Structures
1.
Amino acid sequence: MMKIQCFGVARDIAGGPYLTLDQLEGRSVAELRQALLRTYPAFGELVSFAIARNEEYASDEERIEAGDQLVIIPPVAGG
Amino acid sequence: MMKIQCFGVARDIAGGPYLTLDQLEGRSVAELRQALLRTYPAFGELVSFAIARNEEYASDEERIEAGDQLVIIPPVAGG
Amino acid sequence: MADPNDHIDVQLSATALSLQVCRDFVVHPSCGGLCFFEGTIRDLNLGATVTHLEFEAYAPMAVKEMTKIAVAARNDFGLHAVALHHRTGDLAIGETAVIIAVSSVHRKPAFEGCEFIIDELKKTVPIWKREYRADGSHWLNAHP
Amino acid sequence: MADPNDHIDVQLSATALSLQVCRDFVVHPSCGGLCFFEGTIRDLNLGATVTHLEFEAYAPMAVKEMTKIAVAARNDFGLHAVALHHRTGDLAIGETAVIIAVSSVHRKPAFEGCEFIIDELKKTVPIWKREYRADGSHWLNAHP
């Protein structure tokens, strides 16, 4: 089980600042995105969302490792 | 005799904050410019110079009237 | 440049931002042009009256992304220095959400670099804005 | 607009300019974007070391021309307010010669309007700059 941190609208969708998913280690970020959409279909209603891995935007091909800091980044709105 | 006010490099050329020219009333601004260049050839060495009449840039065709405030405007350098 | 973050001041702050502090960081005798952008909270958005805004940030990554943008602006536009300060928390109408200050020898790169920074910030920095109106609230930009 | 100079603050000043004063003039709850330009005295010009500068203005016409530019910027770029302050007299290296502050609903016109004002000011406002170096002085822009 890995904890994934949620901000902004992602926190509303998850119902809290973290959600958890099973069996992520070794899978790709694309697979994480698919798992999220299956478990929380409301993510599919967003304009888009990105995944941050260890404080950097993660590409779809990256593999998730044990201990990674994973964060869902819904559309940003700074400034 | 009309007094013409001089700023910046025009003051250096005129040797003071004012110069005077005769018989300007009724003449055009273009004629004023020619008279200036005859009397003070150093104005011909400037990048350019404009004439202000009553606190506005004057076109070459405007006629000078008694009581006009005339000012030589060498190349500006604000900011 | 020895330190890649030389002349870069990035801050994420829970308290009021200061234009003067940002200005004093970037001013330098070699620079003739300073350009600043300040983003403030508007009372109207898409025709609706806004009561206040809440800014939430994924702080460590927001600082990293803001620093990347500031360094890119300094290097790509040949700026001398960049200050980039962003607020978090609840902001009232008229309060300041972001201040950008840049300095350069001439003015053109200062304008271009400053505008680049605010444009990029709005695309990549993990900060979110919840808009509160009399009839409820919502996260901006989230839904189509 | 009833008064054609509404929300316009033009000043020609023999004493130090204030970014905060200009900022406070333009800020408004309807505006989300403030852009500022500050022009400061550089220690080097065309490779030569400058000791200080003297600014001379044909004051009544300079104020008229600065006002024309500020009003044109407000009207053409849809700005809310414009402050345009310019120094006269002797200025040391690092001192501020000009400050421009503009506010608008969105940021793009703020950047464009602010840059328009400094570009136009350098073309039309009757202000002259004498540059002092260790070996003498000359009026800038005067000769080819």
2.
Amino acid sequence: AADTVRVGLMAPLTGAWASEGQDMKQIVELLAEELNNQGGLLGKQIEIIAEDDGGDPKTASLAAQRLANSDVVAVIGTYGSSITEASQAIYDEAKILQVANGSTAIRLSEKGLKYFLRTCPRDDEQGKVAAKTLMDMGFKKIAILHDNTSYAKGLADEAKGLLEKEPVEIVFYDALTPGERDYNTILTKIKAAGPDVVLFTGYYPEAGLLMRQKMEMGWNVPFLGGDATNNPDLVKIAGKQAAEGYYFLSPPVPQDLDSKAAKDFMSAFKQKYNAEPGSVWAVLAGDGFNVLAAAIKGSGSTDTEKMVAYLKTQLKDMPGLTGNISFDEKGDRVGDLYRVYRVDADGKFVLQP
Amino acid sequence: MLLKIENLHVKYGNVEALHGIDISVEQGEIVTILGANGAGKSTTLMAISGLVKVSEGSILFDGEPLNKLPAHDIVARGVAQAPEGRRVFGTLTVRENLNLGAYTSNDQQKISQNLDWVFELFPRLKERRNQMAGTLSGGEQQMLAVGRALMGNPRILLLDEPSLGLAPLLVKTIFDTVRQINQAGVTVVLVEQNARAALKLADRGYVMEVGHIVLKDSAANLLANPDVQSAYLGGRG
Amino acid sequence: MEFFFQQLTNGLAVGGIYALIALGYTMVYGVLKLINFAHGDLFMIGAYLGLTLLTALGLADHLSPFGVIALLAVMVLALVAILGVVLERVAYRPLRQAHRLSAVVSALGASIFFQNIVMLIYGAKFHVYPHDLMPRTVVHIFGMPVPLIRILILLASVVMMVGLYTFIQRTKVGTAIRAAAIDQGAARLMGINVDRVIALVFVIGPALGGVAGLMVGIYYGQINFTMGWIYGLKAFTAAILGGIGNIPGAMVGGLLLGLIEAFAAAYLSIAWKDAFAFCVLILILIVRPTGLLGERVAEKV
Amino acid sequence: MKNKRWIVYAACAVVILISPAALNRYWTDVLNVIGLYVMLALSLNIILGHCGMFHMGHAAFYAVGAYTTAILNTAYGIPVLWLMPLSGLLAGLFALVIARPIIHLRGDYLLIVTIGFVEIVRIALINNIFGITGGANGIFGIDRPTIFGMKISTPGQFFYLIWFFVAVTIYLFRKLEHSRFGRALNYIREDDVAAAGSGIDTGHYKLIAFVIGAVWAGFCGTLFAAKMTIIAPESFNFWESVLLFMIVLLGGRGSIAGVILGTFLVIGLPEIFRQFATARMLVFGVVMVAMMIFRPEGILPPPPRTYRLDGDTGPEEAA
Amino acid sequence: MTLLHLENLTKRFGGLIAVNDVSFDVPEGAIVGLIGPNGAGKTTVFNLITGNYRADSGKIVFDGRPINNLPTHKIVSLGIARTFQTIRLFQKLTALENVLSGCHCRMKSGSIAAMFQPPWQRAEEQKALDKALSELRFVKLAEQAMNLAENLSYGNQRLLEVARALATEPRLIILDEPAGGMNDQETARLIDTIRQIQARGVTVLLIEHDMSLVMKACEQIVVLENGGKIAEGTPSEIKANRRVIEAYLGTDEE
Ligand SMILES: Nc1ncnc2c1ncn2[C@@H]1O[C@H](COP(=O)(O)OP(=O)(O)OP(=O)(O)O)[C@@H](O)[C@H]1O
Ligand SMILES: Nc1ncnc2c1ncn2[C@@H]1O[C@H](COP(=O)(O)OP(=O)(O)OP(=O)(O)O)[C@@H](O)[C@H]1O
Ligand SMILES: [Mg+2]
Ligand SMILES: [Mg+2]
């Protein structure tokens, strides 16, 4: 452990979420490489130790044990709340700082764990924004569709709870099965309920199919999606025509930020991988790395206590890939992060004013 | 010489079941193989048909080695077998079973001739031609197994206990049939527990014991041989 | 009423695809008594190969949409069939004498292998077929709009079923296939080249699966490396529902499963539809232990 | 011959026992997971290996046990280990109810029905059935077990807890195998018509086999819940059942030693293959196929049972 | 005294009447033969008695108790054991274990007892083992005890089936073509074995096409044809019965 600073990355490199996990790895490795080219941290090179959590809790707990044993100063990850949860206790017991990137369940930061932080916002945050957006847009009859994953259900419930207090009617509330291809049955059923808008809280592959099949049905209802649909592949799957007019909520993606950090990252990423970064979650893992780097630099040490203290108290509005970053006492990211996006006719995600 | 087996060894796993046997069959003969349970009679027939691997020795059919050929090629050369345990295709109909007996032949006319002949031999099968073979009674299945082997115009017919489970009347029919087929020019190798009947029918016979041929002679001599009598003919019948 | 009819066509469209995959499943099962868990993955590979060929050869620029699809279908069919034969050769043939379940584990291993090799080659991302490949023609039946492609998929599965059924039941080779399924040794004694018969089955089954994958790709657009697992399980369920090993059964089972899912989602709960479908399956099997069209041969003792 | 076998087993046991001392926490935890799967696989082995029923839904029973523990512990604070018998009982009861109508199904039909059960259970859990399963979030905050006032929390502590139960399982199941009951299951597996013809109530035994397997899976559920402190539906999906199914077949149907070895391979190999990163499951798939081809009846098929025949009934008297 | 009583038994398979209104009695202690042409319905009668098939109509009374609708294992524990026309042994198990399966229905211990093995359970196991060995010795297969059933020769497999059936301590044993595949000498030995079974007080009902066995061993013979009973009587009566000769035996011209 003497000559390098080892940073763990726990990500779903195989299994159903492999695409997210592999993006996370690419981004974090890119950032580490850049930092190393600038001389690393505390005069040492950074080494990324990536472990596969397979997207399932059991494998995740093993991956966590493994990282806890490999002298890492901190761990980035992971995607999926229950996966993260399976690893939390292990890092806590081992006194390792964990910065989660795609785990939005509220409870993760409500347990009073000292060394847990996350760069992603919480479900209640997004739920609030979703309800507010729907109200602002003036919809009266709302259908809510989730996919029974812990994230999507959480968001759907959160929004539903808030909307029920408002003078709107929730005409439909149910879950689809992710991974299927044909959602015509569901669309037909939602259509029969007659909503003005559909709030879909699931992920982009299903959202894309829903948009496409909705168009083929000749049905013209607006859709509002959650941040899990912020992925360029959404448009690829739906087709530009079908995707046009789709709204979704998301923390800002690097493309939309004016900060230097974001711009540099975008060009570096394009140059290295010849593609645009995928989902915002992977980018949030990148921010996790940036935050860690800042903590080490700022506290001048790789001591967990010092890093955590620095992040929770001293780090303020650090410019990240997804906007400015600060943390509260619980380790949650503060600030209203969410923006509304709309897909335009070219399939571009346009930030709404 | 139609069939010539020399120094045949067969192994099941590590256990050798045949320890080097020699059998020869002339064109047009009926040859019977006698022997107690587990002597290796069925194994011999299976080796000829290519269903068990020969570990040593050779099997020549019409001067051509069989033991390197795959089983289906052996059949195509005119070696048919009605195997031990009948092995009819249970979920196929009687008709389909019989048609499979003529799988290697393409002569439709000949096939339907044979079918008529088999149905004549075993009227029961005709009656049941659309029944699933697996639901036939034991004896009916035996008829089917023999009938199926007759369908393909074999040059040599290997029969493994064809009379097993048949009613006395039908046992006679079977032996008569074998004689008929033989007279029509088909060579027959017959394995039978009903040794007396088999010897009466056959030209020559072999006696096997635990994987060896211990005796070979003309059928008449074997029938008269006191050792054979006491061991296989149950004293007197 | 319109809602009902819409859901009916929705169910039939899904069911048609299940049926198509189930046909290949049942075909392989019928001969080897092998639950080929890799079948779903061959389906998935069919979808990927279709996309690769389409983009690599730039077909869409030169041919009419139906020409493109027909040509793709032929190529995918051939390639997946080759893969199927190789799979049989490598993973199943050595296990022919072993216990039935040994081959199932081998199939599961092959399934894991296929999924991960596709993930490594193509990446874990979703891949998408061009959207304009298939003209989005809509025809009207009793005044209800139905996309043409749904009718084509249904038609394709009916044609394949009838073709297969005739082939298996009426032809000499078909009888040989069934015979080999029952007793390979006895089949050899009839002069049947069992290896070839089984290889033939592994041409037909996987080819059907591959084409089904292509159709799913064209129809829904979105494919990924885990799709075979979900569709495979559904198709297996469909095949069992109809009576595994039975070709019309696979068809009936597929369509029925599609309909059950559609109506469960439409009139009960979407989130519970799969559970409901399994409940119906279980109930049907309690009443008819060998599926809807499965043979009920009382075992002769 | 027989003695040699025992020496090997004893050596293995000793190696396993002292291993936490030599291993880091990660590898100890891998052994813990293996231990859990050994128990699960041994319980499936009763159903699949001994009785020959194609059961690919074992995770359903495991889930019942885990959720029983999690719900009762988080809601009423009942100590985790006290819940073990209850979890087993409920899982067994559940098996009894669902297996009764389907137990007569043959081979693949039973297979799909059991897959159906595991899917139904998972869907029910995800949809927060009765409002007590926590939906997709699952249940968190399960207490660590305590033994004689000592809290079990590190991998090393869990190691001894889990492997203690593994040892008990092996001991009991070995006795079970070598008994009237174990033989009856084997007869049914070989030929159930003949088994009935020998006076064995096949339906009853199949059911009991199911229940015993389920009870044990329920016990494992408790240990799993205690170890993870959080459980979620995806821990009990169809794939888990498939893994267990593969373990039993790969190890050798009906062989305790084989099943244990199979678990080490199926659960351990992907961990060893971590060096292949994204290709690790690919390698795993290839290894599965290869192992099956080289050992079609499993790595260690069960040796024939031996019986102590009394001297005076020796064969020489027989002729 | 009548041990087994069949009354107007009928069984159909689709349109086929496999057993048609058959009645006969098996007296306690006797050896009764059931013969008839192939497909006459003999095996079906056996399957009806042992509960493998359900009769469409008619009555089966064993020892004064109707057993029509009982499951097979119940019937076995009441005291009827059988062998199968096509051998159905547990091929991958040893000969000893095959016979032990027969002891099963006379034992009590279940899964819990198995796990904790109280003394009575061990005693029971030992008793069963002794019983199985003695049955093996009875059919002269003790040397084969540890061989797998599949490795026994065909004739020995048949004997093993008999031993397994005997281990259930039956009062009636029914044998379906026990001499199938045996040569004359082996058949002669089988006749001895059957007589010894009778001497143990077990009633025997058997199907056989080997007339030497039937005529020597049986005291009473029932003849079926096309599902119906066409004759019943002592061997000499049956041998002389014109109808039986026509339908089954044929004239012994040689
Ligand atoms: N599949 C097999 N695996 C292992 N051993 C076998 C197998 N088949 C036969 N044997 C053994 O090979 C030897 C010869 O058996 P085979 O069946 O050829 O005898 P057989 O003369 O036909 O006897 P039977 O009169 O009983 O039919 C026997 O010892 C038998 O146990
Ligand atoms: N499960 C079944 N389904 C349909 N037909 C059957 C079934 N079982 C038996 N049969 C028919 O019933 C008739 C009587 O069969 P059974 O087996 O009782 O004859 P068997 O007298 O024992 O003849 P064998 O002496 O040849 O064994 C046969 O014609 C047979 O085809
Ligand atoms: Mg033989
Ligand atoms: Mg019979």
3.
Amino acid sequence: MHHASNHKITSIEQAVSKYVSNGAHLSIGGFTINRNPMAAVHEIIRQGIRNLHVYAHSNGQGLDQLIGAGCVSRLEIAYSGNGRFAPTCLCFKRAVLERTIQVEDYTNFQMALRFLAGAMGVPFLPTYSSLGTDIVEKWGFPDQIRLDEPKLASKKLVVMDNPFSRDHETEKLVLVPAIHPDVTIIHAQKADATGCTRIEGLSFADIDQAKAARHVIVTCDHLVSENELRKDSGANHLPAFCVDAVVHIPHGAYPTACFNEYDYDAVFLEQYQQAAGNDDTLDPFFQTYIHSPADHAEFVAMAAQNRLESIRANPVTGYADRMKRGA
Amino acid sequence: MHHASNHKITSIEQAVSKYVSNGAHLSIGGFTINRNPMAAVHEIIRQGIRNLHVYAHSNGQGLDQLIGAGCVSRLEIAYSGNGRFAPTCLCFKRAVLERTIQVEDYTNFQMALRFLAGAMGVPFLPTYSSLGTDIVEKWGFPDQIRLDEPKLASKKLVVMDNPFSRDHETEKLVLVPAIHPDVTIIHAQKADATGCTRIEGLSFADIDQAKAARHVIVTCDHLVSENELRKDSGANHLPAFCVDAVVHIPHGAYPTACFNEYDYDAVFLEQYQQAAGNDDTLDPFFQTYIHSPADHAEFVAMAAQNRLESIRANPVTGYADRMKRGA
Amino acid sequence: MTYTLKEMMALAAARQIRNQDIVFCGTGISMVAAMAAKHIHAPDATIFFETGAIDSCLKDLPLAVSDPRVMHRASMFCSLADSFGFMQNRKTGQNIVGIVGAAQIDPYGNLNSTSIGDYHAPTARFPGSGGACDVACFVNNNIVFMKLEKRKFVPTLSYRTSPGWLDGYDSRKKAGLPGSGPSMVITDMGILGFDRVTRRMKLDYLYEGITADAVQERISFDIDLSSARPFKPPTPEELNVLRETIDPEKLILN
Amino acid sequence: MTYTLKEMMALAAARQIRNQDIVFCGTGISMVAAMAAKHIHAPDATIFFETGAIDSCLKDLPLAVSDPRVMHRASMFCSLADSFGFMQNRKTGQNIVGIVGAAQIDPYGNLNSTSIGDYHAPTARFPGSGGACDVACFVNNNIVFMKLEKRKFVPTLSYRTSPGWLDGYDSRKKAGLPGSGPSMVITDMGILGFDRVTRRMKLDYLYEGITADAVQERISFDIDLSSARPFKPPTPEELNVLRETIDPEKLILN
């Protein structure tokens, strides 16, 4: 048990201002409409952070808002859809077509492996995925960016012959490079003051994203005692020594879902889609929902209106199984 | 939920006779004195299986008994100690010095990575471990064995230059080859009839050992309903489709420990050490404890004598925290 | 009994799923297909999401593969890396049926879900691979879902996101890919297959009331129509499962 | 207050552990050292086992790294692969203090825990690396525990299981190893260090009542004795923690 580690508890303002600087290499946890660290995303937007280099698998809602707010200049990504809410995320699509961001495409497994390589401390991991495709052939970043930016992998990927093959016909493998974000931000259901973190439901790639990063911010719905987490060691996902900052933010993943806590807010996600198509509608949307509220609690109250009760998770199913989602 | 999958439940006799043939490539779960699948080990010894090729990290008690009974002819291993009970396992040591088994040495991480590579379906994984050592330089198996046995990796390991290095001074990496055992046998606290498996406490490398194998036998202290395991999906470790046979054997890991169920039996483990030093004492020991008992329950009753109550796990700590372990 | 072509597509996919299959589900109609199969004829099929939910017991239709509904009474949760590991692993991968969509497909079943035009200055941008390229590389039975449209069935892709049969014949094997190319393309008018030798797309089945010529008209390259045969229309029982049990809110089958 | 050399060894190691360290524990005396450090001066140190128990709250002395006692109120459990990943990862690896033993050590702190004689026909066999080679490759502060004996401190190893400073100077860095060579060798007579340039073993500290010559007599190669200074003997408080709290059954400190 730790005795003097409560200093990791901080505010989202301070955590973002300390660890997310202009030009930082960032990854966020969650997957499309689930467990995105939305309170942190809003704070990054509020602080006007620019030129982020983002590493994403299918990070969905949070990523699209960062792009829409002009925070992102480069992106390594596998998927930018958002389930039924966006076959292709709208801000992402606009930014690519208008060439305001530079993109390098990977697959979801490759991004997961790249975070895992970072977590394991090796420069690459091998896979058979993407052989014979343009994932291998077409590289997104100009060579100059790789030369200028030592934090980037020196190559998008490398195709090698399998050195353990017994055959004359060599098997080929794709080596994908490790990622080491400057900072990874995840949202969890529970964390304690030392940084020990528990995710309920699917953890996606959050754990490897955190282990791979130089710094880790955890936002949590519940700040619990060390004692409570240690009663079930097997249910925890990150030890204290992986985490730099712990921020207690109820509904910190809203409007995305948080298993056992709240469902996604289908109505608000749809409102975002209506606004995201162009800057004339998106700027006032961000003004109303991100810049005006005093804090995340005020944002949630404003955005969810009278729906907070209807998205509350049923403790048996872990989601709001009576929530109306149709037209 | 599955409707017609109860056919995976079988007896240990049938599971071993179906999946563990002479010359099979085998791995067993557990670590030194914890959660070895001892009932299965005893059955392999009883059935007189010979010429096993065993893949081990620090498998301890179960492995040493398989060697002592003459079941093993080749071994890839990281560690053959057994905690305070054996700085070097006695049967292993004798077999190496008498050259009745052939051994190839790796590190614990390397064996863990080799199982992980098998689980992930890639031919190798990279690590910095063992650079500059005889783990790299000295290979245990003659080349002819690798040529004759297509199930073996074609090389012990390969040292490569890091293709993502930016420097003139290349970084080197050790690529360790995947393992695909014919069969992996693990012991878990809980499994259901479909093969879904839950391990409580540390899982060691059991999960990757199972995923890497062509066939998997799970022995379990408790055979529980599918419904019970699905109430806490996050606590489970193997899905049904990874498991071929489920055998319900209370105390199936005895005399090694099983978290939340029973502790190791320090007295019996010490008796084994007293017997293992030479065949004159080991043969009668195996006769008494492995060949004579009608089943595992009879073995446990005979071996533990009046200690079964004293090794019962305290539900709060998960082990027998009042068990006397000193002289 | 009347039915929509979307319903027919979902049921055409559902009928491919056998009782022992592990079904890799994407967002949308493939989930409807997998849920329908479990309710109709394959109760033991395992529904598997790349997000790490294994053997989910879907009670309510998920709107994304990360929807908390995919976690309902799963047999276990794993990480993204682990879930794709199950596909790349030959023991489990060979039993997985993939169901994927795309923006474009070529005559050999290669898929584009990335962009159109110059990759660095595209005229259209789609979400990218996600797990689609991974599943197309690894599994032995990959099913593609596409609406028949000339701009979707094209002779050459701007970007080859997911491998099909690559350039036909044994080019896929030569590239070192572990799984097989797509087994079929389920469309809103019929089902397309691939020639066993050339691996070029051909017409296998036509839905009720659709002609082979109508299919060819919606494809920008020539396909062999000679072996087309009629596909069994939905049964009332199948339609009932879709409408009453799987998607009563018409979230996907709208 | 009298004490045994085993107690002195355990406390010498305990004193190296700082409050923010992550301590990689092997079986035996290194666990006693880590537990003692947490009770005496480093309450926030994290005890870490290769078996995957992270930040254990040890209540009873484990007899193996897989002993269920290592699981007691851990902050989390991970797999073998994950636990060594924490060491290889530079962010966490650089804060890990390793404590390992071996059968033999050479002048540059390389360790043999595999075999003596021809590897294919050895005259003595030990357990092998386990996690020792891994930790010796990865961490920045590796502490070796050895009893001083001529047959253990040898000029050349039959088998180099775990890397020390390899052949001295910058040979370790050239080999591509990420962590540092051993910082010290804690023995039953004193503490040996390594020259900052040559990386050859030298005598740093002598326990109470031990002479430098007595140390040299138990080492089969010459070491520099010139900078040896006395090491502070155990305090009554330290001994009390060892005897009353950590190992009252004398399971390790016997």
